[in-house]
Amino acid sequence: MINIAVLGYGTVGSGVVEVIRTNHETINKRAGEEIKIKYVLDLRDFPGDPVEEVLVHDFEQIVNDPEVDIVVEVMGGTGAAYNFAKRALEAGKSVCTSNKALVAKYGPELMEIAKEKEINFLFEASCGGGIPIIRAVNSSLTADVIDEVTGILNGTTNYMLDKMNTEGADFNTVLKEAQEKGYAEADPTADVEGQDACRKIAILSSLAYGRFLDFEKVYTEGITKITPEDMEYAREMGRNIKLLGTSKRVGEDSFYALVAPFLVGKNNPLHSVNGVFNSIFVHGNMLGDAMFYGSGAGKLPTASAVVADVVEASRHLHDTIPVNWSNKEMTLMDPDSVEGRFFVRVKDTSLDEVDKAFGKVDAVIEPDALPEEFGFITGLMTQGEYKERVKALGDNVLGMIRVKD
Ligand code: HSE
Asked: Which residues hold NADPH (predicted)?
C-alpha cells in the first residue's frame, strides 16, 4: 500500500480526492499498489464531508509519519507550500504538485533534494492543466533539439477572451464567471496580468532547452489592456486575440521568451483553441511540429494530472526519474532585438503619416463600427525598431498588439 497526504482541500485538493475515489481500481492497477489517502491537511473544517475522517490541521503529523510515501502539494503560493514541500522531500517523501509558482521559483532546489534522496519532485499539473505536456517534453521528445515552445497556457484568460469576443461579454463579469468555474488563481491578477502564463513558459522552456529560465526575467504583458475595440478589429481581420507564452532558441546558447496578447491568424492552429482549453505547440529539429491540446484549468483536469504524478511516483518510489533541467541559467535576448509584426490602432492621422513612419504597411483595417480611427499591420521589424518608428505618430497611437501568423 502507498500512503499519500494531500496538502490543501481547495479546488484542486478536493479534485484529487475525487479522482482517487472515483477511479481507485484503475489507478491502483496502474500504480501497482493500492493508493490510500492517509491525510488531508487544511486549516479549515469540513463538517459532513467524508474527508473529515482523514482531515488534519498540523503538517508535523504528516512529515513525521514514516508511513507517508507521497505528499501532494495543492495549496498554492510559495510560503507554506515551499516549506512543506521541502520538508517532505528532506523526510524522504516524494512530492507531486500543481503549483507553478513553487516550481518556477524553487524547482531546481526541490529537484536537487529529490535527487539526493532518490525520490521524485513531480509537477505535471503545473502547466496546461490536464494536458500531459511536462512528461511529453521531458520523457518523450528526447530525440530532438527543441527550438520553440509556444502556447495558450492560461485557461482563465483564454475563456475570458473567447467570451469577450463571441458574446461581447464585459471583462469583470467574465472574470467572475471564470472564478466561479474554478479556473482562476486565488488572486486572479496572476491570470489576467500574465504572471501565471509566465511561470508556465519558464517551466516548459527550462525543460525543453535544459537551461533554467528565471521567470522574473521574462517580459510579460497580460490582457487587462485589451478593449472591445481591439476585439472589433480582430473580428474584421478574421484573427483571434490570444494570450501566448512563447520561447525560442535563436542560437547555440541564445534564447528569447515573452508573454503577451497576440492577434493570431486563421491558419495558425492556436487560432481556434477556445474556452478554457490550452494548447502548446512544440517545434523540434527532427520532429518538426507537434501540438498538445486539452483542458487547461479546472478541478478535475488539474487533479487528473496530479494523480497521474502520484501513479508515476508510486512506480518510482526509490529512484529519481531523470529531469532535463540544469541549474545553468538561460541567456535571454533583449526583447527589443526580437523580430515581429505589430498591429497598431491610430486616430487623427493619415495613411501618409503612417507610411512615412513605417514604410508601406501590410494591411489597413477600417471597421465600420469605429469611424474615428483605423488600424494597420507593420512589416517585419525588431521591437526596438518598432518603438523608434512609432514615436513619429505620438499621441495618435491608441494601442498595439503583436501579430502571430
Ligand atoms: N489559473 C490557471 C489557469 C489554473 O487559468 O490556467 C491552471 O493552472
From this structure: 100
**Res 362: pLDDT:** 75
Q: Which CATH number covers residue 390?
A: 3.30.70.1150
For 274-285, the pLDDT digits (tens) are 999 999 999 999
Q: Which three cell numbers stand for residue 15?
A: 479534485
Domain shared by 253 and 368, yes or no: no
Of 103, 162, 176, 183, the residue with max ligand 1 atoms within 8 A of its CB, to mutate for a pocket test, comes to 183
- Answer yes or no: do 94 and 35 share one domain: yes
The residue written with cell numbers 488563481 in the block is 185
- Asked if residue 98 lies in contact with residue 125, where contact means CB atoms within 8 angstroms, the answer is yes
CB 370 within 8 A of CB 232: yes
Q: Annotated catalytic, 105?
A: no
Closest ligand 1 atom to Cα of 278: 6
User: Which pLDDT tens digit goes with each residue over 88-99?
Assistant: 999 999 999 999
Helix spans in 210-298 (H): 228-237
User: Please, are residues 13 and 7 in contact by the beta-carbon 8 Å criterion?
Assistant: yes
Q: Which of 38, 105, 200, 299 is catalytic?
A: 200
Total of domains in the chain: 3
Cα R_g (the chain), whole angstroms: 23
| pLDDT tens readout for residues 101-144 | 999 999 999 999 999 999 999 999 999 999 999 999 999 999 99
316 backbone dihedrals φ, ψ, rounded to 5°: -125, 55
Residue pair 165/231 in contact (Cβ under 8 Å)? The answer is yes
DSSP letter for each residue of 155-185: HHHHHHHHHHHHS---HHHHHHHHHHTT-S-
| pLDDT for res 325 | 87
CA 35 to each of CA 68, 317, 335, 376: distance values in angstroms, whole numbers, following the listed order: 11, 13, 47, 58
> Grid coordinates standing for 372?
474615428
